[in-house]
């Protein structure tokens, strides 16, 4: 069942070169968490605001549940869209305590029912002992949970979160990200959150829509979009990506690595461009067969090192290859390294 359906949505702002978003179509299933991922200016926040009803689209259709909220004749106001909003700065009322912040959107309930509902939500977000505290008495993570409880209170069809983890330090971010995901899943909520952080998207989302210059480049599960990028730009967004150009010859394939005796049988064509990730390259000892290159740089990343290796291609120009190696790989800069590539994990683009 679809919680959200968007068809051919576009929006252009005055004094902006090009559309903010252009001809976007996507669906979100009930109970699914979707990350709108992209750099600043990619259109992700504009898309979120259009779903919320905070901006008018130039064209396109938005349906939330069974209700069309935007088309060429209809525009349903934000407060009528059954959407919960969690803003980047939480937007809690400083003069309200936790209980009253969560209860703010429950004015139609009786006092008794309101108290029961708020207590249920505070239990859900593990703040049941803090109902009388004020926002300034809470940590950033606790404020985030109060804002989420308030958004969930009216039982919205969709919860929209704008950069929910951006104001948190790395240690707190890891904790809050996991808490927010657990809360949304426990509540059975459908959620869409905006982020520029690939880690947030990979760890918190069921599905990722990667946006660039107002368009969705690819949409899919975290593992699919990471392992099977639609193009080089998508691949690069999730970290270093390796590229090779292969030209078919009578006795094999010629590439920046030199002559390749064989490639996967499914590869067809006279010229191919492939991409593969740093973890698909493995260092080997000099005694084993493999390709060779000169180590240009080794960057310590904690649990591993990211190596940059220079190859000499057929035009005698430098071609760089990235290798994910153990933190104690033992090679020094400018030394020769030998490696193998798992071509079965490579993707033709």
From TrEMBL:
Family annotation (PANTHER family): SPERMIDINE/PUTRESCINE IMPORT ATP-BINDING PROTEIN POTA, SPERMIDINE_PUTRESCINE IMPORT ATP-BINDING PROTEIN POTA
Superkingdom per UniProt: Bacteria
Pfam families linked to this entry: ABC_tran (PF00005)
Record keywords: ATP-binding, Cell membrane, Ion transport, Iron, Iron transport, Membrane, Nucleotide-binding, Transport
GO molecular function: ATP binding
Keyword check for Ribonucleoprotein: no
InterPro entries per the UniProt record, alphabetical: AAA+_ATPase, ABC_SmlMolc_Importer, ABC_transporter-like_ATP-bd, ABC_transporter-like_CS, ABC_transpr_FbpC, Mo/tungstate-bd_C_term_dom, P-loop_NTPase
Protein name stated in the entry: ABC transporter ATP-binding protein
ABC transporter domain span: 4-238
């Amino acid at each position: 069942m679809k919680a959200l359906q968007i068809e051919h949505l576009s929006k252009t702002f005055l004094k902006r070169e090009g559309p903010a978003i252009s001809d976007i179509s996507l669906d979100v299933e009930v109970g699914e968490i979707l990350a709108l991922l992209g750099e600043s200016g990619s259109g992700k926040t504009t898309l979120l605001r259009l779903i919320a009803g905070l901006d008018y689209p130039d064209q396109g259709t938005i349906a939330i549940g069974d209700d069309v909220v935007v088309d060429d004749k209809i525009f349903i106001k934000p407060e009528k869209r059954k959407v919960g909003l969690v803003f980047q700065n939480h937007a809690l009322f400083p003069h309200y305590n936790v209980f009253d912040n969560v209860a703010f959107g429950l004015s139609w309930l009786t006092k008794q029912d309101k108290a029961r509902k708020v207590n249920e939500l505070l239990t859900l977000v593990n703040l049941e002992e803090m109902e009388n505290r004020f926002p300034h008495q809470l940590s950033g993570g606790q404020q985030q949970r109060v804002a989420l409880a308030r958004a969930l209170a009216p039982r919205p069809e969709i919860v929209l979160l704008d950069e929910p983890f951006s104001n948190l330090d790395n240690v707190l971010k890891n904790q809050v990200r996991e808490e927010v995901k657990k809360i949304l899943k426990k509540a059975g909520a459908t959620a869409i959150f905006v982020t520029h952080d690939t880690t947030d998207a990979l760890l918190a989302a069921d599905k990722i829509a990667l946006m660039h210059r107002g368009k969705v480049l690819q949409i899919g599960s975290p593992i699919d979009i990471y392992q099977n990028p639609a193009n080089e730009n998508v691949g690069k967004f999730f970290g270093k990506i390796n590229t090779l150009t292969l030209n078919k010859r009578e006795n094999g394939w010629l590439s920046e690595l030199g002559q390749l005796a064989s490639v996967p049988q499914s590869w067809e064509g006279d010229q191919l461009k492939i991409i593969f990730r740093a973890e698909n390259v493995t260092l080997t000892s000099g005694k084993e067969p493999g390709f060779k290159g000169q180590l240009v740089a080794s960057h310590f990343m904690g649990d591993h090192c990211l190596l940059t290796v220079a190859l000499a291609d057929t035009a005698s120009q430098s071609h760089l290859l990235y290798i994910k190696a153990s933190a104690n790989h033992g090679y020094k800069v400018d030394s020769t390294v030998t490696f193998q590539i798992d071509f079965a994990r490579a993707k033709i683009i």
